[in-house]
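Q: A reviewer asked whether we had any structural model of the full assembly, not just the individual parts. We don't, so I'm hoping you can provide one. Inputs are below.
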Amino acid sequence: MTPNAASRSGGSTGPSRRSFLASTAVATAAVAGGLPLLSACGGSDSGSGGGSSAGKGAKKLLPSYAANSVVTPDLPAKNGSAAGFTAELDIAGLKTSVPEKLGKGGKVTVMSPFWGSPPKNDNAYYRAMNELTGVDVVWQNQDGNTYDQKLGAVLASSDVPDVVVVPGWNMGGKIPSAITGKFADLGPYLSGDEVRKYPNLAAIPTDAWRRCIFGGRLRGLPMPSSYVTNIVPLYRKDIFDKEGYQVPRSADEFLALAKDITNARAKRWACQDMKWTAFNTFGVLSGSEKPLGWNLVDGKLVYRVETDAYLEALEWTRKLFAAGVVHPDAMLGKSSATDPGPKFAAGEFLVYNQDISQWWSRTAEQAAQNPQYRIWGMDIWGHDGGDPTIWATQPANIFAFVSKKAPESVVRDVLAVADVTAAPYGTKEYMLTNYGVEGTHYTVKDGVPTKTKQGNIDVLNAFVMVASPAPTIAHPDFPDVTRAMVEWQQRMGAFTEKSAFYGQQITEPTRYTNLSNDFEQLEDDIVRGRKKVSDMQRAVSDWRSKGGDQLRDWYRKLLDDNGTATS
Amino acid sequence: MSHSTVPRNRTEADPPDGPPAASGDATGPPRTARTGRVPLRVRLRRDRVLLLMTLPALLLVLLFNYVPILGNIVAFQDYDPYISDNGVVSILHSPWVGVENFQRIVADSAFWNAVSNTLLLFFLQLVLFFPIPILLALLINSVVRPRVRALSQAVLYLPHFFSWVLVIAVFQQLFGGAGILSQLLRLHGYDGLDIMTDPDTFKLLVTAQSVWKDAGWGIIVFLAALASVSPDLYEAAAMDGAGRWRRMWHVTLPALRPVIALLLVLRVGDALTVGFEQILLQRDAVGPGASEVLDTFVWWNGVRNQDFGYAAAAGLVKGVVSLGLVLAANKVAHLMGEQGVYRK
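A: Here is a predicted structure for the entire assembly that you could use as a starting point for your response.
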């Protein structure tokens, strides 16, 4: 399991929703916004009413890095990929990375998004984790799909749980102001060499930590992820092979193939909504977070919606819908909260784009009852048949925060939990966090751990949300899939570029908060034929005049003052 | 004689339970024999048990209906609930922006789009939905055998207890692009028909869903009104040679008239509330252009975008317009000789 997959997958509905939301981050992040002046500045020296984590002052907030690889990966990380582990697991030889219980037995309440059906609060997995960490963690799992709606209300109350997990795409509206206002500064516990008390946290890459700086303080515990795009065009390799379909290498090839595949009468369509893949294949700047959408073009900052590539990608996606090759369910847009898995398994459509974790989770899900089923990832093609330009996503997108009201003992207990959950692959802590208790939650046969029914119920989300190790893909049960996933990331990583504000945690000033709210909706209207591409052009010029150009100046100043995160 | 002194004099003069007419004598020309003329203190003493019994309900109404109205003040602010743990403190510290939020509303085409969708849906539902429960009630009322009647009532009520998620999922399975209807058409060589994602017919679809789900439930009030009609009237009418239709026209419908008028007034007051969950669930299927109504507009801006002041302003506008509508409808009811929601 990768740390990503651990949380993103694990249930049949979990992955699609999570990553679905992850990629809707455009909307939520677009909704996202600035801080009120009083709590604004991130980093050290940013303009008033917003901020970034890239300033020079940020450097001394970051925990110092100390690698602790326990098991050498079979596929080392390259081009921004996760590290891959394909080998059989030596259960008896698992290392111990947290030799003594750091927890002091305190009670810690955690509110976290949950994709799927949460288990009972008193279950064997939670008990075992609490035993191992020495902390009595009480989970308040909330539906991940509607998390943004609950989050705002909980943070506005006086009753904030000790720990609140907030995904980056839920940081819309005034949530950034709540983060700086309601959550504790973890700097005194983690900055610099302080982190050495927690060796597994010290091994979390610095890029991920840099994303945890909110309002000029280190406030979050990260879930690191690969910066290579998480959206893979997934297809039914078994049916492709049988029918002799070739994986397309350009936008036109895809459309032609899609027409070939579609036979509505036989209840077969080519694909689902391919908008995210269109953005990647046409080289559109990332929409997973607003700051990533800005980049320097010929010395001038340009936002993704202003680019030709953006319009071309929308037009191509519109063509797919208009050609009738898209499964009718996709017309419903986000209101079809149904899991596409069963219809994909039934062959109603052969291609869809989703989070990479589904490559493995769908395989595992179907392995028993559907032996022919083979899901595989297409390489992201360049729209013209050449090499694609793919823009990097952020190296961490989910954060756990500790309430400002929590006493030091609680903060220490939370860090004790985090040190266990961030343990790397090959340790006892990793196995317990990601697989649960051997015999109860998983069984091992020939070095391959397989989750039991109870394991699939209990060991889902929860603890992995507190903190995770460096990006890892480890599925000894399907070594070929693991290898393919890592190699896909490495191949795509070679085409991946980082835009100007990559790696920073940026908060736009409040007055621009609602500026980009409607773009995602408009995209969906256009590709489904309800609006025209010219409507988008009008929206973009509105955006410019209503503050987009000022926002450009604001970003310009940020760039001039702070430089890039990687510089 | 000033109004305030009258009661005091009378309280001393009249026994607590004195006939109301006595007050007429005291003030000279007898106006009306209303109980309102009995002095307040007397009435308080007389009704104190009843008043005490209403007190808990009154407190609840105050606490949950009236106190929150004060929160509308954030419509004049750029409200940030995260300034403090305490909502009141947050209000005190949020910046005031005057009527800026209202100016934004006026200039926001999305708001006017929501208004027009809301009104269109209201009229559609008024014409297509409102009469159906009345017809169903008449129909049920004409069923004589109690078991058939109970069964049909149960069948009609049942959809009311389904959640909107379920109702829409069922509609999707039947009428969606890959639903039963479409596949049937395709099997017979026609093109598929996707009713669920057609923005042009969306309002009809929403009305149809509402009718399917709630029309049965709506008959309860009418059935109660029908039950109160004395069978003597029907017998007398029948004796006079009135046929089925004449009995319905001259006996049944007049009996229903006050209830119909009352419900109509209430419905008009609710005109701007045309189904929140139902529409939110289908918002993305047809896009906000066809589906956004005032309630989803407020939700989208307040809860999703956390533009609380703006959403509050939109909600306030909706509230004020609704109040105006209910008063106007009530007036019309009075002109028609009905009671409406309150008496003058």
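A: Points you may want to mention in the reply: Residues 1-48 of chain A have pLDDT under 50 and may be disordered. Chain A has two domains: 3-31+62-228+396-497, 231-391.
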